[in-house]
Amino acid sequence: MDKNRSVEEANRTLKVLWRNGKKPDSIVLRSILLGRRDGEGSPSSLSRLVLPKGIALRFYLIAAFEAQCRLAAGGQWTNVLPLSGPGSWSDLFATDGAYNAKSATYMHDTVHGRAAEDLRLRQVQGALRTLEGLGGEQYQHALVDIPRGKRGQRLYQSFRLMRESGRGGSQSLSIYAVPKAQWQAARTVEVPAHFFLNGWAQVLSPSEVATWLAVKWLSKWARDTHLASGVYLHGERRTKLFGLRRDAWEDGCQRLRDFGLIRFARNLDEAEVLPLKADYRYIRDEEVISSRKRYEPYRYQVTDQGLEEDAVKVCKKELIFRQQQLDLAAKHRGAFGG
């Protein structure tokens, strides 16, 4: 993504939408996307979108961003963008190109005669199919609706975006409408615009996005606790409410800490003394870990300031740092015959 500057180009298109639109500070999501408040029933749409391949989750979030740049609260969604070409849906997403196994290189421009634009279009079409398929045979949980042509082919250009709860079980579709931010019972969660404008929506994996959204929602649902001592998710609630497995949650929290988007919790007195910086994770983390009681879960606080950093630069810096640590560990093992 860095070599072909696809994140930079996608960010540029998103910034044009934002500047030419209503310039929202945050994008509002109905929390039903994350999971049922009672933790019962079928898996949440968010958990269904934590997939190893594809951009379905990214597509839905960016579609909400596009809608809220253009429409006021209550405005109903209609598609105004083409699927491909300048300023299209395809331009809103970064792609790393295709991988050529024979040469062990990424082909940034073309592969098998297909242009990069065609690759992005196929990426978008794949996301639409995934979002439509969330509803199963009845399509009631589908997050998009794709009309069919006379021969049964999908008419991708005519797709319709659904609300976070899905299209519903009746014949009348639940077309997406821009929600109003609500505080009561954390019915909504707000995603800062920097999440989209600085490339975080492009570089974070679906699992990392899901984990970040869960912590973000908890920070609102338990606002005072989040500020005073941080929030956490125990196993039953994590799986029933958000559909996040333990390994996905722990790995997601680790990466988000590395990237400066969450931190180990500090109390209010510490928060007043220690500045919230992108490199906060290097400040007294050892003390947090050592002071943690056995079997006590790690508690986290969201640090939205991290979103103001360029996602690609932060991730590159962290990857270099991680590789250096691995090299040092390997050297240490070699020195002691490990």
Keywords:
single chain; 338 residues; mainly alpha; two-stranded antiparallel ribbon; two-stranded antiparallel sheet; 13 helices; 42% helix; globular
Unreliable residue runs: 268-284, 286-292
Q: How do the strands line up in the largest sheet?
A: 1-8
Number of helices: 13
What separation lies between the terminal Cα atoms? 36 Å
Supply Rg: 21 Å
> Helix and strand succession?
HEHHEEEEHEEEHHHHHHEHHEH
Please state the oligomeric state of the protein chains shown.
Answer: single chain
Name the average pLDDT. 81
What profile does the largest beta sheet have? 2 strands, antiparallel
Structural class computed from helices and strand pairing: mainly alpha
Helix percentage range: 40-55%
Percent of residues in β-strands: 5-15%
Number of DSSP E strands: 10
Q: What is the general shape?
A: globular
Furnish the topology, listing elements before pairings.
Elements: H1 6-20, E1 26-30, H2 45-48, H3 56-70, E2 98-100, E3 105-107, E4 110-111, E5 114-115, H4 116-133, E6 144-145, E7 160-161, E8 188-192, H5 194-197, H6 200-203, H7 206-221, H8 223-229, H9 235-242, H10 246-258, E9 262-264, H11 268-273, H12 285-291, E10 300-302, H13 311-335
Antiparallel strand pairs: 1-8, 2-3, 4-5, 6-7, 9-10
Helix pairs in contact: 3-4, 7-8, 7-10
Description:
With 338 residues, this protein is mainly alpha-helical. It has 13 helices and ten strands. The chain has helices spanning 6-20, 45-48, 56-70, 116-133, 194-197, 200-203, 206-221, 223-229, 235-242, 246-258, 268-273, 285-291, 311-335, and strands spanning 26-30, 98-100, 105-107, 110-111, 114-115, 144-145, 160-161, 188-192, 262-264, 300-302. A two-stranded antiparallel ribbon has the order 1-8. It has a two-stranded antiparallel sheet with strand order 2-3. A two-stranded antiparallel sheet has the order 4-5. α7 (206-221) crosses α8. The longest helix is centred in the C-terminal third of the chain and has 25 residues, at 311-335. The radius of gyration is 21 Å and the shape is globular. Residues 268-284 and 286-292 have low confidence and may be disordered.
